Amino acid sequence: MQSLGFRIRGLDSEQLRRWKRLTRPSSTRRKLITTAAIAWAGYGILGPPTASIRGSSVSAYRVVVLVDSSTSMPDFNTAVKPQLDRLQAAGIPIGNQSNVPGWSWGSATGYGFLSALETALAASPNADAVFLVSDFAAGDDSDNNTAGELRLRQLLIGHGLHLYFSTVHLPVPQPYRQLAESTGGGIVP
């Protein structure tokens, strides 16, 4: 009767000792690598941070904030600042904050936010959301036009942005609500 012999190749005893030393439970390196892997995986899996503002959810990794600075707006510290504080408390950094003269998306109006949005996105190209706060008073939407709406949609789609409108006084008009919802954003009433 013949016997069959074979040899298993792999780690030699020195390599095995090193591997055990590096991976033993008390290894600081192992703990650090495990913690970093979990944190990195969780950041992408769990989704962006989410702020709850007056019953609405705002989710983003980085947000560009546009604040209506028209004379009809209430005091910044009582109407707007608490909302921005909620974003930051939820872990949503404000990449860029700009004042805008109004809430129209018209391309040729003095009461629009389109040019300010373009400037803010140039300064914060990694933003993934736009948060516009206004009182939605004074009928700025009468200055809206097709060219402005097309440019706004190009910016939103081109940058992969979610759009949120937050009102501090009157309800957000239906076309604005539809646009925000079409981007995956929404309305903060």
Please give a quick description of this structure.
With 189 residues, the chain is α/β, with parallel strands linked by helices. The protein has helices spanning 13-23, 28-45, 76-79, 81-89, 114-123, 146-159, 174-182; strands at 50-53, 56-59, 63-68, 94-100, 129-134, 162-167, 186-188.
Structure description:
With 189 residues, this protein is an alpha/beta fold. The chain folds into two domains: 33 residues; 139 residues, Rossmann fold (3-Layer(aba) Sandwich), CATH 3.40.50. The chain is built from seven helices and seven strands; from the N terminus they run H-H-E-E-E-H-H-E-H-E-H-E-H-E. Strands 4-3-5-6-7 form a five-stranded parallel sheet, with helices on both faces. Strands 1-2 form a two-stranded antiparallel sheet. The longest helix has 18 residues. The termini are far apart. The model has no long low-confidence stretch (mean pLDDT 86).
